[in-house]
Amino acid sequence: MEKITLYSIFHGRFPSEKAHGIFAAKGAEAFANEGAVVKLLVPNRRGVQKNAFSFYKIKENFSVHYLFTVDLFNSFLKKFAFRVSLLFFSVGSLLFVLFDRSKNKVIYTNEIIPAFLFGALTPYKVVYELHDFPEQNLFFYKTAFRYIDLFIATNTWKGNQLRKEFNISEERVFVELNAVEVSDFVLDVSKDDARKELGISTKEKVVVYTGHFYSWKGTDTLLAAAKKSPDIDFYFIGGTKEDVIRIKKEYSAEKNIHIVGYKPHSEIPLWQKAADILVLPNTAKEKISKYYTSPMKLFEYMASKRPIIASDLPSVREIGGESELYLVESDNPQKLAEEIYKVLESGGDKVEKAFEKIQHHTWQKRAKRILSAFI
Questions:
Q1: What is the CATH number for 126?
Q2: CA dist 163 → 53, 64, 139, 246, 345 (Å)
Q3: First CA to last CA across the chain, in angstroms?
Q4: At 30, is the secondary structure helix, strand, or coil?
Q5: For residue 233, what pLDDT is reported?
Q6: What are phi and psi of 291, to 5 degrees?
Q7: Strands ordered across the beta sheet of 277-280
Q8: pLDDT digits (tens, 9 = 90+) for 243-301
Q9: 242 lies in which domain range?
Q10: Are the C-beta atoms of residues 344 and 232 closer than 8 Å to each other?
Q11: Is residue 368 part of a domain?
Q12: Is the pLDDT reported for residue 1 higher than 60?
């Protein structure tokens, strides 16, 4: 069979340290490794560093095309910026693909507007990867979904809801979790050496959280648990400048809470190696956390070979259960603090099972399974 040309359409700053940028880059590399001709289409935004291959340390086995868009993100119209940018970018992507002379074209995107345009206006196969789940504009989604050939649902809950809420047939839904580059997190460094490099005491008990401080991430629960655990050091890696300033001020009296702030993704494996425990404290109060997400952070934790305490949520159990994780009631600082002490005392005996399970969720294996669903 002749090679397909896979147009991966990604509306986001690229390259970017955010998870969606890593997702686009690693996915494109993996699809290309499987033999597809991959053309990654991204918006040309102001101030973007364009050497994505060195930025992500990936093979230059696909092409990146920066398409015109209207960038209002730094203007007084910034509240309209995303929609305006997406509309122009979607039309630009349509024109790019139509005038490109490649054969066997397949459209792959996690944005509904380009998925709808390509599905309704072209004969090309459209694959739509569903990261969230529509709660508004349902009439529009029902209309757009008719034109999509294959849905990639990043967990079983979303796959089931597509069939139930939108009457999508079984053969048009493919469930595939997110993934991780395991080799990025397998460092030849001990916990003590990692701490020395980061300036962390080798004698203290250390809990690490890496990620943002969005409400659905549940960091408020972990911060409250840290206040209850003064003899344990808690390190929070990540967050926006505004969040870091706010939380540092709020918890300035707590000497065991260390708000480190943003660090490049390339440094995250070392921080995770320095931990006695890694925590994923997602809340059950928001659907994105309880049902929609397939948290890449948990995949990265499991690849780091450290004990993991995670909220007991459907989205988390899809990735790991009691054999791989220490599951705890969400939104309960007292229970979380108690579990942290228990795991520290036991030393954690689930890391190997977690590491073994994550081997099935590499970017390469993910790409191979997805390609098999529509080729």
A1: 3.40.50.2000
A2: 38, 34, 16, 42, 45
A3: 9
A4: helix
A5: 98
A6: -125, -40
A7: 257-261, 233-237, 206-210, 277-280, 308-311, 326-328
A8: 999 999 999 999 999 999 999 999 999 999 999 999 999 999 999 999 999 999 999 99
A9: 182-359
A10: yes
A11: no
A12: no
Q: Rounded to two decimals, what is the model's pTM?
A: 0.93
Q: How confident is the model at residue 324 (pLDDT cuts 50, 70, 90)?
A: very high
Query: Residue 8 to residues 107, 111, 113, 132, 296: CA-CA distances in angstroms?
Result: 6, 10, 14, 18, 19
At residue 12, φ and ψ (nearest 5 deg) are -165, 165
295: Cβ contacts below 8 Å, ≥ 6 apart? 178, 280, 282, 315, 316, 319
Tell me the three state secondary structure of residue 257.
strand
**What would the pLDDT profile of 165-182 be if each residue is shown by its tens digit?**
999 999 999 999 999 999
CA separation for the pair 78, 250 (Å, rounded) = 29
How far apart CA 118 and CA 277 sit, in angstroms, is 46
Asked if residue 170 and residue 30 are part of one domain, the reply reads yes
Is residue 150 within 8 Å of 119, Cβ to Cβ? no
Does residue 306 lie in a domain region?
yes
Contacts of 17 (CB under 8 A, 6+ apart): 262, 264, 265
Q: Work out the angle at residue 31's Cα, subtended by the Cα atoms of residues 45 and 296, and round it to the nearest 5 degrees.
A: 70
Same domain, 239 and 278: yes
Q: 10 Å Cβ neighbour count for 263? A: 15
Are 165 and 206 part of one and the same domain? no
Separation between Cα atoms, residue 11 and residue 26, nearest integer Å = 15
Tell how far CA 87 is from the center of its chain.
24
Query: Where do we find the tokens 């808690």?
Result: 234
* Measured distance CA(142)–CA(365) in Å, rounded: 31
Q: Tally the domains of the chain.
A: 2
> Same structural domain for residues 228 and 245?
yes
pLDDT, tens only, 50-89: 788 999 999 999 999 999 888 776 666 666 678 889 999 9
Closest by CA position to 109, among listed 20, 17, 177, 19: 20
Query: What is the chain's length?
Result: 375
Tokens of 74: 């730094």
